[in-house]
C-alpha cells in the first residue's frame, strides 16, 4: 500500500498557531513581574467566581503574596489549603489568604471572627505581623465584596510602591477597535491624567518631574487592568521576539478579527528631556511598533504617548510618520495639577470660540 507525505496548508497552520496563547500570564516570572502575576491571578479568580455567582455578598478577603524566599517562615501559619484557584466553593469572606507564590496553588488560611468589631483593622494587624516575620512589606490584594472592588498594593523600593483598584464584576469580552480605544481613554482619565491618579507616577508635580520608572508603571498597570477584561491569557507584557521585547501584545482571540493581533508601544514625554530627545523617543516608538508588528503579524499597531511636559500636544512630525506607516498614534496629556487641566480646557475653548467668530 502506497503512502503519501502529509501536506499542511501553511496559511491555515499559521492562523491556528497565531490563536494559541504563548503562556497563561501577561507577565514574565521574576522581579516585579511576580507581583503583577499575583494581582492578575486574584482578579481572574474573583471574576470567575463572580460569573458563577459564588462570591460572598459582603465581607473582606486579604490575599497576601509570599515570595519564594519567605516560604519557610510562613508555611506553618494558619491552616493549609491546596489548589484554591480551582476551588470555586471555598468560603472566602473574612479570611486572610497567605499565598505561597503567585498562583494560589498552596495557601495558608487565617480566619477572622465575624463578630470582630473592626474586621478590616484586624486583618491589617495580621498582615503587619506577617510582614514583620518576613521583614519586608508584602504585595497584597484586598477584596471588598460589598463594593465589588479589588485593591492591589504593590511593594518594593519607593518608586515601585503604588495602589491599583480593579472591578471584579467586569466580564471577559472581545474588544472592537473603538472599545479598545475607549479603554485607553478611561485608563488615562483614572490613572495618568492627574497626579491624583491611582498609580501615582509623579515625583514632583510642581517641577513637572515623573518617577524614573513611570513608563514601566503605566504599562504594567495598563496590562493588569486590561487583562481583567480580556483575560490573562490574551495579554502579554514584554514577550521576547526577534526585535526585542514588545511593551504590550494583545492576542487575536481577544479582539475583533479585523484588528487582532495588536501591538502597543508605550512612551513617556518628560519636561526635562527637551524637544529633541522626546521627538527621538516617539520616533523610536513608531519604528519599534513596526518591527514588533511584523514579528507578530499584527493587524493593529499603536504608539501610546504619555505627555508630561509643560507645553502639551501631539508632535506633528511624529503624527506624519505614524500615519505614513499606519501606526495609530494616541497622545495622552498629563497635567501636574487640577488647575493645569482647567487652564488648558479654558484656553482651547477660547481658541475655538475665536475660530467660530471668524
TrEMBL record:
<protein>
    <submittedName>
        <fullName>Uncharacterized protein</fullName>
    </submittedName>
</protein>
